[in-house]
Amino acid sequence: MKKFIIPSVLLSLLLSCGSGEKYFEKHAVIPQGATNEEIIDIAARVTPTRNQLEWQQMELTAFIHYGINTYTNREWGYGDESPKLFNPSDFDAEAIVRTFKGAGMSGMIYTAKHHDGFCLWPTATTEYSVKNSPWKDGKGDVVRELRNACEKYGMKFGVYLSPWDRNAVSYGDSPAYNKFFIEQLTELLSNYGEVHEVWFDGACGEGPNGKKQEYDWTAILAKIRELQPKAVTAIMGDDVRWVGNEGGLGRETEWSASVFAPGSYTHKKAANDSLGLNEMSKDLGSRELVARAQEAYWYPSEVDVSIRPGWFYHDYQDSQVRSLANLVNIYYRSVGCNSVLLLNIPPDRRGLLHEVDVQRIKELSDYISKTFAENQVVNGNSLWKAEAGATMEYTLKPGAMVNTFLIQEDIAQGQRVEDFLVETYSNGAWQYAAEGTTIGYKRLLRFSDCQPEKIRVTIRGTRATANISNVGMYYAEPLVEQNARVLLSHVNTAEWKSVGADAAMAFDGNRETAWTAEGLSALIVDMGKEEAVKG
Fold first, then answer.
1. Angle CA(218)–CA(196)–CA(312) in degrees, nearest 5?
2. Could you give the C-alpha distances from 26 to 44, 116, 418, in angstroms and in order?
3. What is the number of alpha carbons within 13 Å of residue 379 lying toward its C-beta?
4. Distance (Å, whole) CA 409 – CA 442
5. Exposure of 6 in the CB half-sphere (CA atoms within 13 A)
6. Exposed, middle or buried: residue 283 (CB in 10 Å: 0-12, 13-18, 19+)?
7. Which residues pair with 432 in a beta bridge?
8. Which stretch of 77-81, 152-156, 194-198, 526-530 has the lowest confidence by average pLDDT?
9. Exposed (0-12), middle (13-18) or buried (19+): which is 234, by Cβ within 10 Å?
10. Binning pLDDT at 50, 70 and 90, where does residue 244 land?
11. Pairwise CA distance, residues 97 & 397, whole Å
């Protein structure tokens, strides 16, 4: 971790450096006495490390929850399940990884140990592992086989090692358990080649057993840096942030350049409490928030979600696998909202991915590949350095039908766009298409089908000069959620207001009145507050 403290005498030099811009890799400390403008400028110059940049470019990765819980039909084990329960009949690491690779996934993370404490590699730290299972007469190693398969098929490999351990006798004796946990981590990071991501949640057993464990995150992260310097640390690490939910929904305004202190920092609680922040806060990087902060971080979002209701396989959920329409929506709300999508696909009791799951992720891969196969914008990948208020027009290929807009920033130079507008030109007039707030690595917006001659992008707000690296237009075939039923009648319309037109009669509750408009006019409604509408 690199810290930069900027003396006030040098601050003016930093802010007037012109083309020779100064950057703060991963972390910047805000100097005392800095003005709001100076603070925002510093936040605009926080950039990712090389590891974080490579991680962001992965976009779509796989998560595997597979262990004792697969055979007990539980989500959380108790740590007293017999190792003899783990005995897959047809475990095939290559088939699993080959399926992920074919589905366009660039890496996978395996749950080497969950909260039950059962280790899926023959560890020397405990007897509670595969070495005491009947699978391969105790000589099997799930971690080894998956790691080898990833190497064979060119996939990046990561591990999830649960800090909470309901089997370990030392859990609750903080110094002893931290030593035990680091020994397990050392095995995984020393004996299996390159590890790209190390994933921890913050689970901590504080139940009736009275055990309370304080994890030594400083020592844990130091060991990772020592053994796997190219790995990113996720969730309780300081490279990758949990999005705040397990429903696959990224924020509409998602700042990688954030003021939310990483989970492993010793001052995390005090720093976040002072700003009123937690993992689920809607705002992690607005101007108002940044102006009150003492530090800024490059701490991008990872969206973890399961293809099934549970994280481990349960046969009664075979009919509850997410639909293609739902997964596509998740893709737009994660990858399309400046995040990386970590999609969990759990192997079944055979040790294979279930056929329904395999078919669904293939459908998702085919849909994404078809949608983004050809950019209809001419020269959309030319770098555009944009100030606030700047516009750029792009020509589209003749006759192109489009309904999806893509835009990217060169995040190696920071995340800077705060607000932008997209318009389409056809029949001699400009029409509103879409608008957004943050961009970051990638932003996707959907709108009605149209065949414009050109588009116009306006950067309505930015921190310093924005670096737009790519603009695209595509056509995504419409998908219908077959079992969706949205009950808008349950949503209170009392606070609704029309935007840009006097269209209140469209939602005044009176069937005798109606809003009418000439041609393709947008009806925009400000609902007054955020509503969760479920189907």
1. 90
2. 12, 34, 20
3. 8
4. 7
5. 27
6. middle
7. 423
8. 526-530
9. buried
10. very high
11. 38
Q: Which amino acid is at 333?
A: R
Closest CA to 313 of 361, 363, 362, 351: 351
Measured CA to CA, the distance from residue 379 to residue 382 in angstroms comes to 6
How many Å apart are CA 404 and CA 392, to the nearest integer?
18
pLDDT tens digit string along 34-78?
A: 999 999 999 999 999 999 999 999 999 999 999 999 999 999 999
| Interatomic CA distance for residues 286 and 269, integer angstroms | 20
The answer to whether residues 407 and 467 touch, using CB atoms and an 8 Å cutoff, is no
* Type of residue found at 50: R
Whose tokens are 């936040």? That residue is 43
Tell the residue number behind the tokens 């835009």, with chain if given: 407
Instruction: Using the Cα atoms of residue 99, residue 104, residue 107 and residue 110 in order, give the sign of their dihedral.
Output: negative
Q: What is the DSSP code (8-state) at residue 121?
A: S
β-pairing, 466-474 vs 27-29, is unpaired
Residue 7, pLDDT score: 42
Q: Which of 332, 282, 334 is nearest to 305 (CA)?
A: 334
Backbone angles phi, psi at 186, to 5 degrees: -60, -40
Backbone phi, then psi, for 197, in 5-degree steps? -145, 135
| 503-515 confidence digits (pLDDT tens) | 888 888 776 788 8
Q: Are 504 and 498 in contact (CB under 8 A)?
A: yes
Which pLDDT tens digit goes with each residue over 347-369? 999 999 999 999 999 999 999 99
Tokens of 436: 């957004």
CA atoms of 231 and 225, how far apart (whole Å): 8
Contacts of 521 (CB under 8 A, 6+ apart): 501
- Mean pLDDT over the full length of the chain: 92
77 with 118: CB under 8 angstroms? yes
Residue 396: is its pLDDT beyond 80? yes
SS3 assignment, position 328: helix
Which residues are 430's β-sheet partners? 425
Q: Are strands 391-395 and 454-462 parallel, antiparallel or unpaired?
A: antiparallel
Please report where in the chains the tokens 């942030």 appear, as a residue.
241
- Count the Cβ atoms, other than its own, within 10 Å of residue 111: 24
Residue 241: per-residue pLDDT: 97
- The torsion angle over the Cα atoms of residues 266, 271, 272 and 275, rounded to 10 degrees, is 180
